[in-house]
């Protein structure tokens, strides 16, 4: 599957805490536009699952992106667009709206808000997680104070979900 992965530097986005969505205090959200080539003759979701799995990101799922603002305070998440396109707001209400399409990959450090604003009828997303952390779904101000304590404790993954051991994530997600 590595022949389907395009080596590139990601776009990096940092978001401030907006009172509902804490976002990550140190690490940027990474977006790899057109990171994975999805030929017509293969199952595009299986390609993304294979790429993520080969790089140690598992517990994958296939679905969409929730239409409400939410984040995960105890785990990082990668979202690969297998089919279709969507307009997604990352970082909470004061974040950034991005158009994502088939082949794009977004890597969200713990605490990064995300919300689907619109999508094509055929949208299919593959999500996955590093081998440590606990899935949670946060969406209210009641969870904010605890999230501020837990988000910095989620360690850096050993591998970039797209590029593995030598991926940009390892440089961009440094402690300190």
From TrEMBL:
It comes from Mesorhizobium australafricanum. It comes from the Bacteria. InterPro entries: RmlC-like_jellyroll, RmlC_Cupin_sf, UCP019307_cupin, YjiB-like. This is Cupin. PANTHER family: BLR7373 PROTEIN, CUPIN TYPE-1 DOMAIN-CONTAINING PROTEIN.
């Amino acid at each position: 599957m590595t022949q389907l992965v395009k080596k590139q530097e990601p776009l990096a986005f940092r978001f401030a805490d907006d009172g509902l969505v804490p976002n990550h205090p140190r690490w940027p959200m990474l977006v790899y536009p057109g990171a994975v080539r999805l030929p017509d003759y293969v199952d595009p979701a299986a390609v993304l699952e294979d790429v993520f799995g080969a790089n140690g990101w598992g517990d994958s799922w296939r679905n969409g992106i929730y239409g409400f603002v939410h984040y995960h305070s105890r785990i990082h998440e990668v979202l690969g667009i297998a089919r279709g396109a969507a307009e997604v707001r990352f970082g909470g209400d004061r974040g950034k709206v991005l158009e994502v399409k088939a082949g794009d990959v977004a890597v969200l450090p713990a605490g990064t808000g995300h919300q689907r604003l619109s999508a094509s009828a055929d949208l299919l997303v593959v999500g996955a997680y590093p081998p440590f952390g606990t899935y949670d779904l946060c969406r209210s101000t009641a969870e904010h104070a605890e999230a501020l304590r837990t988000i910095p404790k989620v360690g850096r993954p050993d591998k970039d979900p797209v590029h593995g051991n030598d991926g940009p994530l390892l440089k961009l997600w440094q402690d300190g």
